[in-house]
Design goal:
alpha/beta; Rossmann fold; Dihydrodipicolinate Reductase, domain 2; 2 domains; seven-stranded parallel beta sheet; seven-stranded mixed beta sheet; 12 helices; 33% helix; NAD(P)-bd_dom_sf; Saccharopine dehydrogenase
């Protein structure tokens, strides 16, 4: 039986981002049939399928429901779902992987015969950054440096998995890239003053690891890539920097670190800015979503899904920015009333 491209499974569709993604996708694509995959199905959940990424036996429901595209919004450290999609020629979009898991997944795809679209969209906010970089500077080979500045509000909604990842890795060095040299960095060190748009103003911003570091350097060959983050609370930003400076995170228990990073509010704006230097001039794009990071991540992922649905029999491994023309993608982002983009 031929699988239909209008049947999509969102694994982790009950989660914070997954739930918003499902609602947005339904509203924009009423002809698409959407299934929600979860380990714990709620009574009365429409099109709910029992899917456990740690139990590949549960994947039999995918073939039974004639599904062609899998959107992964749940952590799959063992890459069981990725393997299933490759073996069964299913399209796949993953928005969940932190940098170490992304590197592992990319290595997993090497030397495999791939007859579908395998898309890694694990960069910041559903892989937005790279598209914005090439919007600012279409001549990719001229780009010398990219900086990403992230404003994170503790009042915003945040998923448990992100907090747990940060708690587990905050004391570990991560990879950065300066003039084509690998440097080892730590979160919340090496502060830099940056003046954020949208009325936020000047803030101390510290090292932060996102997959964009790896993607922009390794996949796109940009010599220097940096990511800095600040919290909406100047005190919290300073405190985390102080904790890292005295190596307190090295001795705190995992449960205590989880408690520190478990802030989850009822909603707030999300803001980030991308700076691109081509050696002659520096250009900046700033983006704000008044509905917060979960909405922005879900909305950008919906745009990636719509691109995959339109591209027919394209085959191979892609990053999400490779699905779009930068100007078209920006215009689609700006079609959402809550999203504002400024460039200078």
């Amino acid at each position: 039986m031929q699988r239909l491209k209008n049947r999509i499974l969102v694994v982790g569709g009950k989660g914070l981002v997954g739930n918003k993604l499902v609602k947005l996708l339904k509203a924009r694509n009423p002809a698409v049939e959407i299934f929600v995959g979860s380990r714990n199905l709620s009574p009365g959940l429409t099109n709910g399928l029992h899917i456990d990424v740690n139990n590949p036996a549960s994947f039999s429901a995918i073939a039974e429901h004639n599904i062609q595209l899998i959107v992964l919004c749940a952590n799959d450290n063992s890459n069981h779902m990725l393997n299933y999609c490759i073996e069964n020629s299913l399209d796949y979009i993953d928005i969940t992987k932190p940098t170490p898991d992304l590197e592992k997944a990319l290595m997993f795809t090497e030397d495999k015969s791939i007859n579908s679209q395998i898309v890694f969209s694990s960069g910041w906010m559903g892989g937005l950054v790279s598209s914005l970089v090439f919007l600012l500077e279409p001549q990719r080979e001229s780009i010398q440096e990219v900086k990403l500045f992230v404003y994170y509000s503790v009042n915003d909604q945040a998923g448990v998995s992100s907090a747990h990842f940060m708690a587990a890795h905050v004391a570990n060095p991560f990879k950065g890239y300066v003039k084509n040299k690998l440097v080892w960095l730590k979160h919340f060190l090496d502060s830099e003053n940056y003046s954020y748009s949208f009325g936020i103003g000047k803030r101390q911003s510290y090292n932060f690891d996102t997959p964009d570091l790896y993607i922009l350097h390794k996949a796109e060959g940009i010599p220097t890539v940096q990511v800095k983050m600040t919290y909406n609370s100047k005190f919290v930003t300073w405190l985390l920097g102080a904790f890292q400076s005295i190596k307190l995170f090295d001795v705190l228990s995992l449960s205590m670190r989880r408690l520190i990073f478990s802030a989850n509010g009822k909603g707030d704006q999300t803001v980030f800015e991308v700076l691109v230097d081509n050696g002659k001039e520096s250009k900046t794009v700033a983006i704000q979503d008044t509905l917060g990071q979960a909405h922005l991540t879900a909305f950008s992922t919906v745009l990636h899904i719509e691109s995959v649905l339109k591209t027919g029999q394209k085959k191979g491994v892609f990053f999400s920015h490779q699905l779009h023309q930068p100007k078209d993608f920006m215009n689609q982002l700006k079609s959402a009333e809550t999203i504002k983009i400024t460039m200078c």
